[in-house]
Amino acid sequence: MKQKKTIVITGGASGIGLAITRLFADKGHQVIFLDFNSNSGNQVAEEFKAKGGDVTFIQTDVSDLNSVKTAFDQIPETIDVLVNNAGISHVGNLEDTSEEDLDRLFQVNVKGVYTCSIEAIPKLRTNGGGSIINMCSVAASMGLPDRFAYSMTKGAVLSMTLSIARDYVAEQIRCNCISPGRVHTPFVDGFLAKNYPGQEKEMFAKLAATQPIGRMGKPEEIAAMVYYLASDEASFITGSNFPIDGGFLGLKA
Ligand code: NAD
């Protein structure tokens, strides 16, 4: 792996994104993370800078092209890696999903990949190629129960991954996605607090038990795959989807 790569990551202030920020920063790479949440973003950046890490936070709403353009104006002309990780969830089947819910999920989970990728491509091109890694979900391949809008948007992330991979393969810009199963992050804690107040512990155990491996994943277990896909060792991999899910998809039948 190039000694010091420049990596741009969205949603790098929490959960899986934070683990990715940490892994790349600890290995001496330059990390620029875009996140909506300025409180945790600034806090995370300060924490890494205090340890000598080359970490920059730019407050950005990935669903807003102007906000993303402003962020990318502050990013070097050449980057090696883009990780489209920011995402939000919604609980409900088709009839429980309002037009507003649908639009909100689409704006962040789908348009957010478009806005950042379209801004990143020229900077990856200047680099002579690079790697785009999209955070998908097992929901894209199996339609999680009661997650109509979420499954739909992650299905689009999978399709966008294939489309980008195909259109930019000749320029050595690789594009892959990772489909995590349940991973213990604030995303999961927030979901439990909102939907099962007072029953969080019990529901956490139930969710963990749905994974064949018997537990939820750790953010670091997803970050490790991102690190590999960003590396030169993965130079022959593009247009692929990698489930990291404790056997959730593969061992179901
Ligand atoms: P998280 O909620 O812990 O972190 C998400 C981060 O994205 C937060 O820092 C948040 O501020 C940021 N974000 C949200 N909307 C944004 C916006 N409009 N602009 C910029 N930043 C924004 O979530 P997580 O569990 O770490 O999930 C990260 C990704 O992994 C998501 O795409 C999610 O769909 C996917 N995923 C998570 C799980 C899981 O079980 N945790 C499973 C499968 C897929």
UniProtKB/TrEMBL annotation:
CDD domains in the cross-refs: SDR_c
Molecular function GO terms recorded: oxidoreductase activity
Family: Belongs to the short-chain dehydrogenases/reductases (SDR) family.
Record's keyword annotation contains Oxidoreductase: yes
Keywords: Oxidoreductase
Keyword Repeat: no
Family annotation (PROSITE patterns): ADH_SHORT (PS00061)
Protein name: NAD(P)-dependent dehydrogenase (Short-subunit alcohol dehydrogenase family)
Domain of life: Bacteria
Native species: Cecembia calidifontis
InterPro entries: NAD(P)-bd_dom_sf, Sc_DH/Rdtase_CS, SDR_DHRS6-like, SDR_fam
Lineage: Bacteria, Pseudomonadati, Bacteroidota, Cytophagia, Cytophagales
